[in-house]
Amino acid sequence: MDYMIREMREDEYPLLKEFLYEAVYVAKGAAPPDRSITDSPELQVYIRDFGSSRHDSALVAEMNGDIIGAVWVRIMDDYGHIDDEMPSLAISVLRPFRKSGIGTALLNAMIERKKADGYSGLSLSVQKENYAVDMYRKAGFHVALENEDEYIMTIRL
Q: What is the pTM of this model?
């Protein structure tokens, strides 16, 4: 696959709503939730007013002029929140392009970007059954906390 990773432009921030929806984990055999789920307060924290904080940062994977994946970070009180110094990460790749290395490339690019920016670490929340857990582990994330369904994972930069 021929794609490039680049900084997300401000005029593209509205696309984060679609990528947030795509990031919602759907268990095998389960029906996907209604798209309105992204309007819930617990998910709006990932995208509302994105770009208004100096901690907001997003990268995209682009192929043939189309954005096929996104990774973004911000300091927010979300499911993966650790503290007010560590940005939380969200990542999503459109279904037809999953399991092709694009998510790993996006993740690694953001890790390097935030390391260069001087952050001490990143955090995320992931369903234990999500196949992406292995991708996060391979990238260097470790389980910091867990509950019945989710891991909160962190990486030190």
A: 0.95
